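Protein modeling request. Please complete all fields; requests missing the sequence field cannot be processed.
Requester role: graduate student
Desired output: 3D structure, token encoding
Chains: 1
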Amino acid sequence: MAGKIFINYRREDSIATAGRLADRLAGTFGRDNLFMDVDNIPVGINFDKYLKSQVAACDVVLSVIGPDWLNAKDETNQRRLDKPDDFVAIELAAALARNILVIPVLVDGTRMPKASELPDSLKPLALRNAIQVRNTNFGSDAEQLITKMREALALGRPERTEDLVALSFNAHLVATFLLNVGVFLTALAMFFSLSENFAGALAAFAVALPVCLVGAQTLVRNESVRRFGLMVCVGGLLAVAALIVSQQFFRVVLFESDTLQSGSLLIGMYFMISAMFLGSDQYWRTPVTWPSSKAKAILMRIANSQWLAGLLFLSSMLFVAATWEIFYRLTDSVAAALALVGVQLVVVGFCYARYWKALAANPAPSTA
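Delivered output (368 residues):
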């Protein structure tokens, strides 16, 4: 059973980061094990005792500290931390007095407060080891925090929930596609460079870089790349659409092939799927909303099977098949096209191995 977690934060200072952190922690420890926004205090209850009782029920307290946490003031210009009715101070003081594990979470480079800057009841906080969480690299920082919390609480590995499998499966498949598109663009850049078409090489490299970056960050489920990734995928979809219709407007001989246009439609479709993935909370957070129990059962059967999942990852190569013919037509070399296929197969194998490693870290729930 996961430990109880209390998220202590000041609303005007770090509500956005605290909310994102709560969503990420819920996926690992469960929403029922999180305490946040303890402000619905029953009428007539001593709020000091009430808050302390809530903190006492937890195993770890996360103190989210943003740039205005230390010197936040009320309407009378008095520092909030020094006031006896400050919820943040009451909660932290209760945790420190009970020797509960308190982890300062420093937001976007905020420095750790010194003991001399804190009220007496909070001075021990200055001795607690802190961890940085940056909104620009939120995914990996949050995962590091979760790892440290699990180690400190001596918890076993979380069970392999259906939501965890679905999120990981979707992320790795989208990453596989994007990285393979990035490989193709890099191969184009190399060909243009060898052909002394340096403008073309620069353009291909410039496009390959963000595509590869989004693919790599999607592979580790780093949420900070979502908005940028959505732009990349929409841009890729528009580019594919322009190439498909370019024969009518620009008479591009390259796309006179029906096979090539059909393959390009597949690429465009997966760019659309990737845009949906990056643009929707549904594909990044738990709980996952399933369209039907049958669809859920089918996906779980595939995603939890090494062979079926492997076949699906391998079949993702079909969505980049058009890149092989494009590269062959440009280079007039079967060897170059086969080399591209080989590198893309390596990418598929790498992403599949990363996916199965992620599942292996979370044992399947016991059926006993």
